[in-house]
Amino acid sequence: MGRSPHIGKSRMAKRSGKSGQGPEKMLEELREIRPETEEIGRERAGFVAVVGLPNAGKSTLVNALVGEKVSAVSPTPQTTRTLIRGILTEPRGQMVILDTPGFHTAGPLLNQRMGGSLREAVEESHVILWVADMSSRKKDREWERFVEFMTSQRATKPLVVALTKMDRLGPSNMIPVLIEFEREMSRHGIEGEIVPLSGLRETNLDRLKDLLFRHLPEGAPIFDPEWYTSQTMREMVREIVQEKIFSLLYQEVPHQCAVLVEEFHEPEGTEKTTRIEGSILVERESQKGIVVGARGETIRTISERARKEIEALTGTPVFLRMTVRVVPDWRDRPSILRDLGYLPE
Ligand SMILES: Nc1nc2c(ncn2[C@@H]2O[C@H](COP(=O)(O)OP(=O)(O)OP(=O)(O)O)[C@@H](O)[C@H]2O)c(=O)[nH]1
Ligand SMILES: [Mg+2]
After folding, report:
1. Ligand 1 close to Cβ of residue 77 (< 6 A)
2. Is 63 in the pocket of ligand 1 (CB under 6 A)?
3. Which of 165, 193, 206, 324 is deepest in the core (most CB within 10 A)?
4. pTM of the predicted model, to two decimals?
5. Is the backbone of residue 281 left (phi > 0), alpha (psi -120 to 50) or beta?
6. Per residue in 196-207, pLDDT tens?
7. Domain boundary assignment for the chain
8. How many H helices and E strands in the chain?
9. Residue 142 and residue 146: Cα distance in Å, rounded?
């Protein structure tokens, strides 16, 4: 406890939310706001872009590194739709970890935008953290797509590879996978340290943190050390509700659903309850039926699970009302993607 997500819209958070701004410029501007931190000494501070295929375990690892839940996790590929910033502050410095939606370019506007977030993160970062699922057998396709991406981005930044989900393999199965990765990397001329770990079990994270900190430039903290994410409460609520939908309906409609948080009222005066209202968008009537469920059972479960998590976040009782609305083709409509926070304003 003691650390907090960012709440409200301070000057710092707004600046950090700007996209397309290089790390040097951003650091320079933020130092102007917090000149006192220049005096602190030889701390390091910088950005880490987390890249990889959908479902590799990126968000699980980001949450484990930050030590707080900042990014939604589910068994469904494409759970993360936008760039999520998690913040890890230690005496040795501050690491801003950019969780990305993985590799996407084709499909509706939403998916193209997801690919854009990934490129932005790589541009912003000082070091790239490639997360690959150690237990996955789709190595060839993964390699092909990753190498293609790295080449298209002309990424010349330091690379660290996290081979995650090592808890799924026994020690004897792990060695051949490690050897294979090393061999493949050198075959493609890719340089970078490899760390086997488990995001879920939080194994071997210290080694990864040491490597990542070593690649960051010297500098003062970028964000208030108390913060663990630059997301607003509304964005956190969107991610939490979205995660519950993905986790519950992963075999049915997740990609056609989106969460729009319309009202977020913190308690004022003698009030005790945070009131949140919003919509779950779906593309067709039949999908609405699935999200609502028989006698409203499914939407009740989603809301109940989300409410508990939001209460832990706000530290207040929460009233949460989500209405399911049919909005055809929302994934291709810029105005709606903007309202959802998936396109810049
Ligand atoms: N056993 C095991 N499962 C893991 C580990 N890390 C992630 N998972 C599981 O893998 C699934 C995907 O995890 P996410 O963290 O959402 O993966 P992601 O790469 O962020 O996925 P997208 O946002 O969809 O691209 C979830 O069911 C996780 O519980 C791990 O270290 N071990
Ligand atoms: Mg994710």
Report:
1. yes
2. no
3. 165
4. 0.85
5. beta
6. 999 999 999 999
7. 11-214, 233-340
8. 11, 9
9. 6
Report residue 259 as tokens. 């969460």
Q: Is residue 299 pLDDT above 90, yes or no? A: yes
As its CATH architecture, domain 233-340 has: 2-Layer Sandwich (3.30)
Residue ID of nearest Cα to ligand 1 atom 21? 55
Whole-number pLDDT of residue 109? 83
What HEC string does 49-87 produce? EEECCCCCCHHHHHHHHHCCCCCCCCCCCCCCCCCEEEE
Please tell me the number of the ligand nearest to residue 196's CA.
Answer: 1
| CA–CA separation, 289 and 293 (whole Å) | 6
Q: Does residue 57 have its Cβ closer than 6 Å to ligand 1?
A: yes
Band the pLDDT of 60: cuts 50, 70, 90: very high
The dotted CATH code for 11-214 is 3.40.50.300
Spacing, Cα 305 to ligand 1 middle (Å) = 19
